[in-house]
Amino acid sequence: MDLFSQIEEPEREELLSLRRELEEANYKYYVLNQPTLSDREFDEKMHRLQDLEAMFPDMYDPKSPTQQVGSDLDVQRNNVPGTKGSKFETVKHKYPMLSLANSYSREEIEDWVRKLPSGVEIVCELKYDGLSISLWYEHGVLVRALTRGDGQQGDDVIANIKTIPSIPWKIDRNDVPAFFELRGEVLLPWTRFEALNKEREEQEEPLFANPRNAASGTLKLQDPREVARRGLEAYLYYMIGENLPGKTHFERLETAKAWGFHISDAIRVCHSVDEVMAYIAYWDTERKNLPVATDGIVLKVNNLAEQEELGYTAKTPRWAIAYKFPAEKQLTLLKEITYQVGRTGVVTPVANLEPVQLSGTIVQRATLHNEDFIKSLDIRPGNRVWVEKGGEIIPKITGKDEGLPVTGYGDYSFPTTCPECGATLVRVEGEAAWRCPNEAGCPPQIKGKIEHFVSRKAMNIDGLGEETIDLLYRQGLLHNIADIYDLKSEDIAAQERLGEKSAQNMLAGIEASKQVPWARVLFALGIRMVGETTAKKIAKRFISIDSLQWATAEQLCAIEDVGPQIAENVVKYFEDIRNIEILDRLRKAGLQLEGEAAEEPTSDKLAGMSIVISGTFSQHSRDEYKAMIEANGGKNSGSVSKKTSFILAGENMGPEKRKKAEDLGIPLKTEEEFLELIKN
Ligand code: IVH
After folding, report:
1. Domain spanning 610-677: CATH superfamily
2. Residue 136, pLDDT above cutoff 90
3. Which of 148, 435, 485, 510 pairs as cysteine with 589 (C-beta 3.0–4.6 A)?
């Protein structure tokens, strides 16, 4: 190496590392919404990178952050699909992604072991029940994340994979090979899965059947911000490439762990089938305490030379095999089908079973989902049915015992009237559910609406739980949400089980709810499909019930995330005179039916405009400018695009934004010009 290149070397490295750092910062800022650098730090680094690139023209790269502008391009550079209609890039696997042969018993494992060299070491691992992923690292940098696809080629979902905190974007070590691939499983942990489904239930969206489906849906989302919010996790279990360190699979995983990868602690090297069976027995119960779903274990020949010797069949390696935990299912009698009517009137059939032991709990009820589900299984009371614990949590019926003459107790048909109030059920076209339309007169709908209203994320009224609501409803004291505010201390205290103290607690909770802000009150009203987030967005645009009451479907649809169905539900809600009466009473009771006055547009001078704020200001803070834009009917946007009306430009405006504005011909306004524009 000559003297010149020795001097240049550190700066060339600095250049490369700055590119990576700025790319990462861009991604975290625009995509994950979690800025890691201040604007100032970002600009300083960008300037330094520009200087270095000027010094080394041979290192020109059209993909450098200095050459890319604006958020959507950053997003594209990171291959975020969904922007500009792009799809995931399909990429051929360097090594095909195979599946594993399955086994279900000690005998089958013994058969497999017999074909292996004698004295072989077998690595036992958990079999994670998610989706396989292949991570490509070039010079220690994550460059691709491919799904299994058809085994030969997969989709590059790197932008979504980058939201998983345990996956390193780069490995800052000098002992990593030029290229290696790490394979593993992407999963949605149980707690995240349950929270996601709960949220979907509240928004009346279809539920995911198990964490695997949820992870699969999440990995293919077009918006990495939503992926990040859902909280995927990954476990890695296989390293491949050329010239990798280590002679055994176990050593490679240890190395991967040392490089910062998330490798399970449950991995064991076994020397006999007995040891393998002990591992299986242990994890068959212990896995229930893991944060993620597993459906078996994987056995792998430890020695890599032996692995190579054994080779592959067309579909699976010969050096590995899966052992699947037995599906927990039981036959039992379907005694009766009962029906539950939910808050929104949906009628759900429920199987009442002869109690049966399953995965450590006694099961006597299981959902039958809807009429189509019952028809597809062709089951009726009197049948013996198979019950399984779907995804280990919710018991489900998977079929009937075909071995016996199946007569059941006679013909079965889904009810035509509401089992609670007798109203004629309706089935909306395109929906599987039958609904009771008697919203205001059907007891579970009445009580369900009140339960929703008082729930923690809504009005958060302590002391008014499901049982108390039921009691007060039966006593004729509660018929709708407005009745809550007419409850008297003596009415409550007079109830059996509810004393003086409960009455005081409840009334304090009711009183406190009068301070709950408008967005939550709107959510609490329980308008169909208006969940927590949607309510917030609507409440921001329509800052009082009075303005919302007259909103048209078209105006509502202009709000982010509000589609025609939600808009129609809102409009219909206000068309019902009973709701208007309830709202009147809530207003008289002193509820917050309007938002902060500051949020209300004071003028429409900026109506329909999308304005980007960039740089530092002397007269007001960025937040104050943001509030002013909104108060004048405008929209503050984070990135420059064709739709940007103008940029409110302060000192030291970001060079990327400036360049993009120039390219697109977007005007800049100083803060003085802006203040002049909105002056009364
Ligand atoms: S090894 C060539 N190890 O199970 C061997 N796979 O049914 C590659 N899986 O496609 C696979 N946990 O998605 C391996 N500890 C583990 C695993 C595992 C889960 C998945 C993987 C594979 C599928 C085969």
Report:
1. BRCT domain (3.40.50.10190)
2. yes
3. 485
